Amino acid sequence: MKQKIGFLALWTAVAGGLNLVWEIFQLPLYTIYYGTDMQTIAYAIAHCTLGDALIALSSYLFAAAATLSWNWPVDRTARGATVAVTTGLAYTVFSEWLNVSVRGSWAYTPAMPQLFGLGLLPLLQWLVLPLLGLFIFRALERRMIDLNQNRDR
Question: How many CB atoms lie within 10 A of CB 123?
Answer without folding.
Answer: 18
